[in-house]
Design a protein that fits this description.
Elements lengths: L3 H10 L5 H15 L11 E4 L19 E4 L2
Parallel strand pairs: 1-2
Length: about 70
């Protein structure tokens, strides 16, 4: 599946940036930083519903030492 953004990366950065390479790098980033299962404590994640980026942030957690707060507005 070769979509617009994959083509854009390949056109901008070179043929190496195909879908397989990009997916591999996403997996590596998620492994390095914990993806949605971040092993951290004493962090409060705060998002507001007006912030367009809130949809890609954490909206719930199973770690009581790292609560998530979603502010309506």
């Amino acid at each position: 599946m070769d979509d617009f953004f994959t083509r854009l990366c390949r056109d901008t950065f070179g043929e190496k940036f195909n879908e397989a390479f990009i997916s591999q790098q996403i997996g590596r980033t998620n492994m390095d930083y914990g993806a949605l299962d971040i092993n951290a404590s004493n962090i409060v994640y705060v998002h507001g519903t007006y912030d367009p980026w809130h949809v890609i942030g954490l909206t719930e957690t199973t770690n009581p030492e790292s609560p998530v707060i979603l502010i309506n507005g």
